[in-house]
Amino acid sequence: MRVDNHNLAGRSNDPEQIDLIDLVMQLWRGKVTIIVCVIVAIALAAGYLAVAKEKWTSTAIVTQPEVGQIASYNNAMNVLYGNSAPKVSEIQTGFIGRFNTTFSALAETLENQEKPEKLTIEPSVKGQPLPLVVSYVSDSAEGAQRQLAEYIQQVDEKVAEELDVDLNDNIKLQTTTLQDSLKTQEVVSQEQKELRIQQIQEALKFATQANIAKPQIQQTQDVTQDTLFLLGSDALKSMIEHEATRPLVFSANYYQTKQNLLDIEKLKVDTSAIHAYRYVMKPTLPIRRDSPKRAITLVLAVLLGGMIGAGVVLGRNALRNYKPKAQ
């Protein structure tokens, strides 16, 4: 039992052990040094806060455009392609997809500038494509809000320009297609007319050879290509003259094609009325800056200053009480 007590006493006198009470007393005696370090750290933090560049983030939420915002484009597509035109929902999805792609490209361009700008776009809800959250970081709250609105408008105008180019290409393509269709139908109608004249001429030859000058049948609606010669040479000659001067006969499809072509030629689309997005939330005016955080910075300064002051006090005392071990 005495051995245990002896061991305990030996350990308590071990200079390597940390005496918390002594440690606290050392810190208390060196409180002036600690306070000075804290004050210096706070001064440095205040200087940092005074010169540090502020960062403010403005945020907006956008989604696919409303039907009214794409009405002119939708009407143009219906005129161009009729029943084959894309649905309104497909157009809306395509528009916001173009907006997302163009906005992402702009954000990448701004990030790679000599003086980078932080512009971001991402889904508002993870796993869902819409709505989209867009944000911009600036050195002032008003600047962030204003610049974000300008970038959104810039992207919207660029998408509208691209849609205008695509629409004009579609108009040219569809115009060419319809014109080619009309020419083809005219050629077919002309060939049908020439074939009809050739058939009457062949029937006239048979009627002349058979000495049939007058009609041999009463009901002309019963006449077929094989019995056409029974109308007589006189009637057939008159038919040939009539067919030669008769205008081409076209089907209803020809006139529908021509109507579609006229509608396309009169088509005018106001791209300024086309928008690729709709605001769910307009760019906000931030009320709290992202950095520097004044409260956090000052708290960290106090903690860091206190730690440095404590280190100075303890280090100084350790050097003062240091005794080289005997050789």
UniProtKB/TrEMBL annotation:
Domain Polysaccharide chain length determinant N-terminal: 16-120
Pathway: Bacterial outer membrane biogenesis; lipopolysaccharide biosynthesis
Keywords for this protein: Cell inner membrane, Cell membrane, Lipopolysaccharide biosynthesis, Membrane, Transmembrane, Transmembrane helix
This protein's record includes keyword Iron-sulfur: no
Localization: Cell inner membrane
Gene3D superfamilies: FepE-like
Membrane association type: Multi-pass membrane protein
Membrane spanning residue stretches: 32-51, 295-314
Keyword Transmembrane helix on entry: yes
Similarity field: Belongs to the WzzB/Cld/Rol family.
Name of the protein in its database record: Chain length determinant protein
Species whose genome carries this gene: Citrobacter enshiensis
